[in-house]
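Researcher: We plan to redesign the surface later, but first we want a full-length starting point. Tokens attached.
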């Protein structure tokens, strides 16, 4: 499963992941039902890649896109006023994630 697939399943703001009750949880937890941009990346790396670090090339592409849009951090992009779930999905897909 790619990071964009996590966001398709459920998206949240201000926490890396939330459970069905809307409470924060670890992004890789089986309880997680919604993820922010960073949480989806963490879930992907932990569950799919078995590591906690996104590969350097993918990380550079994603951070480059976020910085080009005027954001310093992934969380700032994810949590920006008016941000939509589809915009986060589109960003991840454009970075081939």
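Model: Full-length starting sequence:
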């Amino acid at each position: 499963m790619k990071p964009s697939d996590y966001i398709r399943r459920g998206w949240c703001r201000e926490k890396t992941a939330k459970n069905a009750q809307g409470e924060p949880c670890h992004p890789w937890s089986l309880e997680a039902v919604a993820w922010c941009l960073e949480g989806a990346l963490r879930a992907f790396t932990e569950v799919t890649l078995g590591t906690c670090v996104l590969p350097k090339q993918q990380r550079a592409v994603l951070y480059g896109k976020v910085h080009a849009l005027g954001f310093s951090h992934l969380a700032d992009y994810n949590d920006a006023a008016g941000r939509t779930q589809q915009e986060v999905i589109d960003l991840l897909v454009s970075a081939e994630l």
